[in-house]
């Protein structure tokens, strides 16, 4: 009873305010590094090491300056990153959905055995495959080419798994209805199942795009010439060659984080749902 | 005959849809897999096998693995990998905490919308004006207004705003944020050290006054660690007696609990530790063995009952013990630190051999507070039946009891899943931080297994050896996953 009585207007207001203060403090800790990043990117180089985070005059020209730096092909890297990530995402979603359709909607002998093979490789650390993959790429002459970056990432056991789990939950009666109407398997896939599997596709699209945009290992070993770098590798090169120019480096960091922030804000709802979809099931 | 034809047709259609993916799968997963197994048993080394020197690649059996275990560096890097995983329980606990905060009732917000906005604005304005009047620096005002605006937006947008802000670090984490943190950690005039400098100079006299007691304090800290061990062993036996944990879980827990005392013999310089710890361990294990073999249980249970739960609790105790050992070591080194003319030296973070790993752990913690784990916990919390809380209220449970007896057991399967995934990730982790921030240094203190594989396989070209390391890493992950399969299901279904 005692707890019930406390729920007066004033007590509730105090409690809510305290909760907001606590949450704001944590949120503040989360965004402080980003605040420093933005403010430093607007400073003069001489001011960077000052105690105060605020620039005396906001140097907005630092941002265009990043694109003009010698030896730093920032625009090019930006484009490369988005180009590669877009292709990988498109191919991966397409091949995964095809395979998932086969694994979930078609009956064929040995289907589950093949699927189990897929599943069991999901546990392997990617590092195991990297070394032989790289040797194969050398033999195929694909080192330092976009193709060599895109093709190995275009097929994913995880994507297939995610899509299959979703497609399993679409009612079977749709297939039968389509068959009675004389639809071919391709029509069933393209016109019925794929539109219904859109939530899973969107989830996979976000995950793949962000994962690829951020990926570092494979581009690092594959791309040798600076004009082929993706952003993570480019940022690494920027840091090691002109890292002392903290203000410009921070401007570059801010710009490279920007697409992710935009995607995140636009896609937040789907993303949160998708994490539940892929996560809880395990 | 007809059914056979039909079957063939079915297989053909199925394969036709699968083909694009299957081809890629065979070429980029299965083939490398087989090659990698083969490579792990050969002496394939790019220094011997290249365009200019084409010696035949020889099959060397288990020599790579033998070399691996003989290599003292490998042991160190394995240790580094595990050391960096100490951050996992902290990160998981923090994400649980933030999920609980976010799931608390915000009912008041909407009702007092106008009021809270007004309060925030007025308070914010007053604070800034007062600060300006007091002649505060621009920095203080910046912080105050930043906090004010977060508070303001938060009280309008509620849960979604906070969730978004919490999730930011995790979502953007990558090369860009690692570069950012490298700058934050800059030892000379980085923002973190700039902020800490006044604090450290204020602490210098305190540290100096502590100097005479340094030995005593360190001893007390180690004593606390030993007490924790005793308490945990005692708790373990109690639970065993009550049928709350099986034999396997009990022994595994003992092993986990015994790691800090064993390692403290290596890490701590004080001579008495080398006597006290073996005694402590012997007493603990003998007591435990005597208890288990000589006593009758009140309630019986299966061998591996509650293995997940008790391992998590013991793991947390282990991490706490490590923290105590670390603190004790710091206090022991206090005389050297204070002896310098400029007072307590600021940490050099990632540029310092001893600070590098804690720095990386802290950065990981920052990204882990609002990670996927927080979202999973949020989903888990919304699935806890409300009548359980009502029942707890009727029984007069305190907030703390409500958490331990309702929330925590209800979230057990989520926690277990998160821990397993985090451990698997931790075993493979550390490559990007090492490559971007430290290059594995200083003196190899942040080189993890994945970074070691990278340097061996791609920089040095010892393909065979690197493959062997990669397979050993797989073996570690396999053990964790097996543990999960064997015990996770039973545990989560209870």
TrEMBL record, chain A:
Keywords: Cell membrane, Membrane, Transmembrane, Transmembrane helix, Transport. SUPFAM superfamilies: MetI-like. It is a multi-pass membrane protein. The keyword Isomerase does not apply. It is found in: Cell membrane. The keyword Thylakoid does not apply. One of its GO terms (cellular component) is plasma membrane. One of its GO terms (biological process) is transmembrane transport. The chain crosses the membrane at residues 21-39, 77-103, 115-134, 146-167, 248-267. Residues 78-267 form the ABC transmembrane type-1 domain. Pfam families: BPD_transp_1. It comes from the Bacteria. Belongs to the binding-protein-dependent transport system permease family. This is ABC-type glycerol-3-phosphate transport system permease component.
UniProtKB/TrEMBL annotation, chain B:
Its main location: membrane. It comes from the Bacteria. Keywords: Cell membrane, Membrane, Sugar transport, Transmembrane, Transmembrane helix, Transport. The chain crosses the membrane at residues 21-41, 82-104, 111-132, 138-157, 164-181, 210-234, 246-266, 272-290, 311-334, 354-379, 411-431, 463-485. Residues 262-484 form the ABC transmembrane type-1 domain. One of its GO terms (biological process) is transmembrane transport. It holds the Pfam family BPD_transp_1. It is a multi-pass membrane protein. It is found in: Cell membrane. One of its GO terms (cellular component) is plasma membrane. Belongs to the binding-protein-dependent transport system permease family. This is Multiple sugar transport system permease protein. It comes from Oligosphaera ethanolica. The lineage of its organism: Bacteria, Pseudomonadati, Lentisphaerota, Oligosphaeria, Oligosphaerales.
């Amino acid at each position: 009873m005692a707890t019930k009585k406390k729920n007066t207007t004033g007590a509730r207001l105090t409690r809510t305010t305290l909760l907001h203060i606590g949450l704001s403090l944590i949120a503040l800790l989360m965004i402080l590094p980003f605040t420093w990043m933005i403010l430093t990117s607007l400073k003069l180089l001489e001011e960077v090491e000052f105690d105060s985070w605020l620039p005396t005059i906001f140097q907005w020209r630092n941002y265009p300056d990043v694109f003009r730096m010698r030896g730093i092909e920032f625009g090019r890297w930006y484009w490369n990153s988005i180009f590669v990530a877009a292709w990988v995402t498109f191919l991966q979603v397409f091949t995964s959905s095809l395979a998932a359709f086969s694994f979930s909607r078609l009956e064929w002998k040995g289907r589950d055995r093949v699927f189990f093979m897929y599943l069991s490789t999901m546990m392997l650390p990617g590092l195991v495959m990297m070394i032989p993959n790289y040797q194969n790429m050398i033999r195929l002459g694909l080192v330092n080419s976009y193709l060599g970056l895109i093709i190995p990432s275009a097929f994913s056991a995880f994507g297939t798994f995610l899509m299959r789990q979703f497609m399993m939950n679409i009612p079977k009666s749709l297939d039968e209805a389509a068959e009675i109407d004389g639809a071919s398997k391709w029509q069933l896939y393209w016109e019925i199942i794929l539109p219904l599997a859109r939530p899973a596709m969107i989830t996979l699209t976000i995950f793949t795009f962000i994962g690829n945009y951020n990926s570092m290992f494979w581009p690092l070993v594959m791309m040798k010439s600076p004009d082929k770098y993706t952003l993570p590798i480019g940022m690494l090169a920027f840091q090691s060659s002109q890292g002392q120019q903290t203000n410009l480096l921070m401007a570059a960091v801010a710009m490279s984080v920007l697409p992710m922030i935009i995607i995140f804000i636009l896609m937040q709802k789907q993303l949160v749902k998708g994490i539940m979809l892929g996560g809880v099931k395990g | 005959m007809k059914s056979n034809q039909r079957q063939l047709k079915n297989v053909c259609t199925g394969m036709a849809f699968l083909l694009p993916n299957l081809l890629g799968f065979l070429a980029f997963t299965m083939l490398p897999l087989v090659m990698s197994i083969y490579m792990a048993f050969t002496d394939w080394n790019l220094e011997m096998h290249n365009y200019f020197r084409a010696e035949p690649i020889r099959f060397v059996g288990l020599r790579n693995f033998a070399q691996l275990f003989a290599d003292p560096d490998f042991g160190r890097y394995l240790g580094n990998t595990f050391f960096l995983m100490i951050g996992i329980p902290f990160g998981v606990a923090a994400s649980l905490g933030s999920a609980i905060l976010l799931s608390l009732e915000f009912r008041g917000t909407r009702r007092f919308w106008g009021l809270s906005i007004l309060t925030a604005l007025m308070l914010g304005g007053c604070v800034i004006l007062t600060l300006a009047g007091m002649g505060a620096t621009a920095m203080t005002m910046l912080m105050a207004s930043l906090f004010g605006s977060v508070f303001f937006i938060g009280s309008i947008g509620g849960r979604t705003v906070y969730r978004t802000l919490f999730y930011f670090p995790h979502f953007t984490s990558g090369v860009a944020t690692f570069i950012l943190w490298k700058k934050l950690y800059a030892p000379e005039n980085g923002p973190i050290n700039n902020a800490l400098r006044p604090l450290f100079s204020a602490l210098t006299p305190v540290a100096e006054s502590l100097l005479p007691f340094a030995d005593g304090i360190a001893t007390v800290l180690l004593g606390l660690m030993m007490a924790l061990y005793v308490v945990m062993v005692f708790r373990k036996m109690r639970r065993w007696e009550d049928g709350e944990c099986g034999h396997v879980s009990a022994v595994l827990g003992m092993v986990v609990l015994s790691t800090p005392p064993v390692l403290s013999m290596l890490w701590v310089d004080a001579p008495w530790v080398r006597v006290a710890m073996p005694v402590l361990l012997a007493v603990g294990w003998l007591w435990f063995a005597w208890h288990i073999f000589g006593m009758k249980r009140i309630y019986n249970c299966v061998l591996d009952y509650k293995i997940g739960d008790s391992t998590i609790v013991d793991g947390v105790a282990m991490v706490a013990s490590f923290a105590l050992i670390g603190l004790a070591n710091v206090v022991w080194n206090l005389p050297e630190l204070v002896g310098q003319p400029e007072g307590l030296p600021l940490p050099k973070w990632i540029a310092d051999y001893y600070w590098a790993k804690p720095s990386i752990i802290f950065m990981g913690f920052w990204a882990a507070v609002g990670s996927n784990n927080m979202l999973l916990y949020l989903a888990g919390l919304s699935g806890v039946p409300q009548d359980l809380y009502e029942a707890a209220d009727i029984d007069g449970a305190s907030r703390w009891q409500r958490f331990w007896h309702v929330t925590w057991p209800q979230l057990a399967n989520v926690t277990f899943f998160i821990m397993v995934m985090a451990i698997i990730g931790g075993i493979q982790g550390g490559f990007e931080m090492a490559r971007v921030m430290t290059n594995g240094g200083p003196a190899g203190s942040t080189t993890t297994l994945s970074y070691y594989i990278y340097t061996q396989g791609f920089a040095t070209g010892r393909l065979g050896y690197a493959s062997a390391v990669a397979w050993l890493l797989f073996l570690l992950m396999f053990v964790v996953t097996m543990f999960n399969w064997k015990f996770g299901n039973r545990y989560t279904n209870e």
